[in-house]
Structures are given as C-alpha cells and as structure tokens.
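testing teh design pipeline on a random one, pls ignore if ur not involved
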C-alpha cells in the first residue's frame, strides 16, 4: 500500500485530520508520482471531510479564531 493510501486509511479510521497529516499529504501529493488508487483515496478523504465523517484540525482552529473575533 502506498504512503498516500496508508495515510488516508489511518485518517479515515481515526476520523481526524491533523495539521501534520495535512502537511504530509501536501508533500506526498506534490512529490510523488501517484496512480488511480492514490487519487481515489484522496478523493474519498475529501468526501469524508465534506460529509462530516472526518474532522479537520485546521478547520476547528479557524472556527475558534472566528468565534473569538465575534466576541
């Protein structure tokens, strides 16, 4: 299993996408030749985030900042 697929699998299992995971994905996607299975894994991750099945640390931090600004 490729690094991209393994990373996505772990994220989907935990239901949480950390800042570190996002950075790893960026690096892997920019510097790796990937095929259909990697693209499908990444697309599945995006869909899971959109559907609320995976929480995103970066999004939660942004939400906290905006809620503090509104106060």
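output:
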């Amino acid at each position: 299993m490729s690094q991209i697929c393994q990373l996505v699998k772990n994220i989907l299992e935990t239901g949480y996408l950390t800042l570190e995971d996002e950075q790893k994905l960026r690096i892997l996607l920019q510097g790796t030749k990937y095929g259909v299975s990697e693209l499908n894994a990444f697309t599945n991750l995006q869909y899971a985030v959109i559907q609320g099945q995976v929480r995103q640390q970066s999004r939660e931090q942004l939400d906290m900042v905006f809620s503090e600004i509104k106060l």
